[in-house]
Amino acid sequence: MGATALTLLLFLTHPAQSACRTVSVTANGLPVTGIEDMALDAPRGRAVLSAYDRRSGTTGGLYLLDLTSLDSPSATAIPLATGLRPAGIDLRAEPDGSRSLLAISRHEDGAATVERYRLDGAVLTHQSTIASPLLCRANDVAFLDGDRFLFTSSHGGCGWGAVIEDNVFGGRHGFVGLVDGGGVRVLVGGIGFANGLLPDPAHDRLTVAATREDALLVYRLSDPQAPPERIPVPGGPDNLTAAPDGRLLVALHPAPVRLALHRYGWPGGAAAPSRIAALGPAGTDILVDEDGRRFPAATVALYRNGPWNGRLVIGSVTAPGLLLCGEAAAGATGSSAREEPPATK
């Protein structure tokens, strides 16, 4: 479907919202705050959480959560790696039954790296660190295969000058980068705050959230320099998750100024709206649309039918815990893990 037709459908569909409640998440007896990204291991009924309390300045980490625990008002997560400032993550099922995990790790000096881990059960083992100046504004990460992966960079440079150029003067210097055997390089640029990304090699597609453009950009993986299809969305898109029926779950920021005030704890920033949408050929359903007083600044949503009752699980860049909503979008996976785990050798 072309962008024009999808745009018309986008604003003609009706909302399919559902009741929600907050769930407290703790690890080692302490609250887990700022769960800005999640990677779903659907066959095992669990998710890896990337959390960092940015407003307090304390470090966070990576945590493992049994999704059945969300039936209770509070859930306990298992710490996998602590003392980090993680951002986007991705999970991949390996032939031996283990999982590979990628995590963007931001450092106090302004640099960022991508850390690769192996996850066996609840044991996380560090495998390698990928470092490059191109990663300094890395935001999200996604496997292409066992060796290669993509990442987004929100801005085109490392210093505050690059941030001011885009955030204040409206520049579009965000990009998607590729990490392979040849190193780290820019794959496609000119994006207004490149955020979540979702590669689909089987259909030669790469979907990128352009937060400051209120749009999703859909590139051909085989020819990323070709002009992308542009899909307008009702807010600034953040993380993306894929559904087996072809739809996308998108966390949206409908009020960017309020988000900025809230993110930095400035006056007028007590809350920032949270919106979750499901996009497909038939249009867009708004699944969650809150003013942010209960659960502000949602950045990611996962959904999967299973023993945890097919609920929509939502994380935020600032809020403690998670938001849990009733049945909504059909089967979003939110990771690169296979539908079923491979047989263990």
Automatic annotation (TrEMBL):
InterPro entries: 6-blade_b-propeller_TolB-like, Serum_paraoxonase/arylesterase. The keyword Signal applies. The keyword Kinase does not apply. It comes from the Bacteria. Keywords: Signal. SUPFAM superfamilies: Calcium-dependent phosphotriesterase. Residues 1-18 form the signal peptide. Coiled coil: none annotated. PANTHER family: PARAOXONASE (PTHR11799), PARAOXONASE-RELATED (PTHR11799:SF12). This is BPP domain-containing protein.
